[in-house]
Amino acid sequence: MKTTGIILHSGLLAFLIGISFALPSTAQAQLLTPSSSDQKHYLIAQSEPDEAYDPFSDYSEFDEDSDEEADVNFFRNGRFLTVGIAAGYRGFTGNFADQYSAAPDFGLYLTYFFDLRLAMSLGFQTGDHNVKFTANDKAVTYSGNVSITSINFDLKYYMNTQNVTRGLADLNPYILGGLGQFYRTYTLSGLDGYSRDSTMGFDIGAGLEIPLMRKKAFLGIQGTYHYVNFSDENKTRVSNGGGTDVLDKPLSGDMYDVLFILGMNF
């Protein structure tokens, strides 16, 4: 009986010792083996050679920001449309200066702005001038009136004045150039059948605008030279209805005008 108890005691002791050795190894195995919740997943980026360059997605953020800034500046400080009335003085060059008298002219202007610097202008001008021709060594004199009307399409470019002094920065200087259609109508005493003709011409000029009423209006001054070539230019003969007289001076020259423009901005 005593021997049996000793054997049972020894077997229980060996079982407990085996469990004690097995438990640390199992716990260590559990600690070394990461759980599914502790595992981290990584995605490896892949690139395909055909999609290495995309012209629609490859852009410069700096250029886009500058364009956006320019648009915001235009909507905040720019003008879309201006309408103005003009009055000024028209003169002539060449022999026209001796045959046509300088006189006031009047007009209307409509200007559309593409951005802060570039604009397109549509203008209408008209004016009457006294005219006097002499022919056959001043033996014959033609006098009367000539009316000149023009429709002008010009592009305006406004200068950047941000780097000048504060007083001059508010001014808007510009240069212009374009085309014009000029109509000339004579009303002369003693000359029949000398009525109306027209020609195309070129415009070149410059101007300056002074803002008024918190930039809602402006007062401008503009000087323009008009290069014209009428059908009788450089000719010394004119029909008087019954014959042909020889003019003492040929018809030749161009036009220029200086205008004051009062306009409204929209």
From TrEMBL:
SUPFAM superfamilies registered for this protein in UniProt: OMPA-like
InterPro entries assigned: Beta-barrel_OMP, OMP/PagP_B-barrel
Pfam families, per database record: OMP_b-brl
Domain Outer membrane protein beta-barrel: 83-232
Membrane spanning residue stretches: none
Leader sequence segment: 1-29
Key words of the record: Signal
Name of protein: Porin family protein
Higher taxonomy: Bacteria, Pseudomonadati, Bdellovibrionota, Bdellovibrionia, Bdellovibrionales
